[in-house]
Amino acid sequence: QSSFRPVIKMTQVFVYGTLKKGQPNYFRMMGSTNGKAEYCGKAHTVEKYPLVIAGPYNIPFLLNVPGSGHQVKGEIYSVDNQMLQFLDEFEGCPHMYQRTLVKLQVEDWESKSSSPEATPAANSIVEAFVYNSTTYQPEWLNLPYHDKYDAYGEHGLHYTEREARD
User: Where is the signal peptide, in residue numbers (predicted)?
Assistant: First the structure.
């Protein structure tokens, strides 16, 4: 009877769109079939980025153009490798989105799994992966920039769920 337990490497991912709580794809983060994802807390990007709603399906895109747009609000999750692989596929990485490290300012931290000394304080800076796009259409830079995304928000741009696309 070995007491060996494999170390499961967890990766922090910042979500700003349809994968957040209350959004159309949140269930994909919570379904254990895709791997493990634990909500850690709320944060916003340290740098400004253009967050646009684009394309025929009104998908939120964080354009990889640091310094323009807004500090974008979202949620940090700690995910295992299985969930990270699922998210890479779900986000069309590396073709539609690229996974890059960004600096985030913590707004509040709820995760109980980290030890108290490993819990970032409010306003501290952490790094997490974000799915952003360097492969966007140039005219997207002319779209309105948002500081947060809500599929049901006042913008009135109805997000088309993957299963409903042609």
Answer: none
CA 32 and chain centroid, separation: 18
Could you tell me if 53 and 155 are in contact, meaning their C-beta atoms sit under 8 angstroms apart? yes
- Written as one letter, the residue type at 52 is V
Active site residues: 91
Confidence of residue 63 (pLDDT cuts 50, 70, 90): very high
Strand residue runs (E) in 20-118 = 37-45, 51-54, 59-62, 73-79, 98-109
pLDDT of 165: 84
Query: pTM for this structure?
Result: 0.90
> What percent helix, strand, coil does the chain show, rounded to 5?
15, 30, 50
